[in-house]
Structures are given as structure tokens and as C-alpha cells.
Amino acid sequence: SSELTQPPSVSVSPGQTASITCSGDKLGDKYVCWYQQKPGQSPVLVIYEDVKRPSGIPERFSGSNSGNTATLTISGTQAMDEADYYCQAWDAGTAWDTSTVLFGGGTKLTVL
Amino acid sequence: QLQLQESGPGLVKPAETLSLTCTVSGGSISSSSYYWGWIRQPPGKGLEWIANTYYTGNTYFNPSLRSRVTISVLTPENQMSLRLSSVTAADSAVYYCARFPPREGAFDYWGQGTLVTVSS
Asked: B49 and A98: CB-CB below 8 Å?
């Protein structure tokens, strides 16, 4: 399958843990990354290579990937984390011209 | 600090060709370490990958858009371009360019995006 499936919305109370899933066929065999996008802004990379955080991304953001599901976890969620989150995988393919980038449909995280 | 800036017409007529340019500053588009990508986002909707290109011209495409997309790299100007032919209202979107290090498989730097509306 060439699709990544995310829940449309997730709600969390401030200070609690938010988990956003991303499902796809044999997703655990690929590297998954996650982007945060706030209204009117460009996406920001928050997790890459399943578990790594770019410089400047808070430690409360973490990731995992196994089997058919990748998960973005936000511990101690803050109001500033309210945003849309997108997963993305890269299938390197058997040759460079068969490589494919896949995005999930996005999840709106509400902190209430 | 790497910066990417998209530019081009904000309004395109149906059936015509959408043309955008991405200008890279603070880094070289000819770097052997990176691909450069185009991604779009219709208003209120999710992200859709269009294509990734290397400075040599090697490009891979979203299969659903491949027949209508042309990507060029202009190394002296440190730019890449996107041309999307035979546009319809469904092609109205914010178009982003971004850097893609293949060893990470992620877009690590993004432009601010440019809104293109397809309308007569």
C-alpha cells in the first residue's frame, strides 16, 4: 500500500501525554518522520529517522516505529503544541527514479 | 542559515501551466548531500508531495502528478523551478519547496510557501 493513515484529530489535556499514530503497510521497514504545522506557517520537522529530534526541538517530542505503525508521543503537552501533525515516510525504491515520498493525512492536536 | 523562497504568479488560468521558482540562499543547491523537493497543500487540507530533484537533474515524482510536472535545477542562480501543466481548480494550493537529505529521508528546511489559485 502507498498510503499512510492518521487519525483526523487527537485531544489531550495540558500536562498529559499525547500519542498520534501513523499506519502503513510494513511501515517499520522505512524511516518515518513527523512535522508540526501551526496555522499560516510552514511545517517544521520534529522527528526524523523514527526517533531523532532536530536541534531545537524539545525533549518532550519522541517517536517510535514498529510493524505497521509509527507513533509520535508528546509528553507533558503544552498549549503551544496545539497544531497539525503529519507523518512522512520515504521509500527509497529499487532505483533512484522509483523513490517515493508519502505523507499521512494529518492529525489536528487539540490541547484543552 | 539556509533559506528557501518560493516565487511566481499567484493566479493561473485553468488549462494553463503553473510556473514557480525556489531560490536557495545560505547554501548551495549543487551540494551532493541533498535533494530538493516540492510539496503542496490545498487550502484546509493536508500535504502532498510533488517531486524531489538532485542538482544533476535526477528527479523522482509523485506518480499521480508525474505526467504534468517538470522540474529544473538552475545551478548558477541557485534555483530550482516547478512547472505544472494543464492545471485545474484542484491544483490550487500553497506550494512549498524544501531541502531533503536522503540519509534522513525528511524535509529539514522549508520555504514559507506561495499560494497559487487556479481560476479564470
From this structure: no
